[in-house]
Amino acid sequence: MKIKPKDLYVGMLVVTTTADNGQVYTIGHIFPNSTLVDIQWMEGTKHCAQGIDYSLLMKPTLKQIEYSLWAYGPLVSFDQILNF
Questions:
Q1: Is residue 29 within 8 Å of 38, Cβ to Cβ?
Q2: Alpha carbon of 62 to those of 14, 25, 34, 73: distances in Å?
Q3: What is the model's pTM?
Q4: 3-state DSSP of 22-76
Q5: Phi/psi at 20 (nearest 5 deg)?
Q6: CATH architecture of 5-77
């Protein structure tokens, strides 16, 4: 299910696909007056980030969260968000 812009918040878990093996991301920053948000994720011990249009974001399913933890390691918690 797509997420409305007003419902986005820093620390929210999101995905960009409906596939069960989709990567789960954490919103790290919401850019004002823009459609861009910063999403962050872990690949093992590597902390990754990129900007993406919020219209691509959906709420993750439990299967996606479980797969992401198994395949990629821990999710980025609120305390781990990097500020750029």
A1: yes
A2: 12, 13, 29, 15
A3: 0.92
A4: CCCEEEEEECCCCCEEEEEEEECCEEEEEEEEHHHCECCCHHHHHHHHHHHCCCC
A5: -60, -25
A6: Roll (2.30)
Q: Are 68 and 78 within 8 A, CB to CB?
A: no
The CA–CA distances, whole Å, from 81 to 19, 21, 29, 41, 63 equal: 25, 23, 9, 9, 23
Q: How many CB atoms lie within 10 A of CB 42?
A: 21
* Type of residue numbered 46: K
User: Could you tell me the two tokens for 23?
Assistant: 């990567």
The domain spans of the chain are 5-77
Angle of CA points 74, 77, 78, to nearest 5°: 170
Residue numbers of the chain with a pLDDT score lower than 50: none
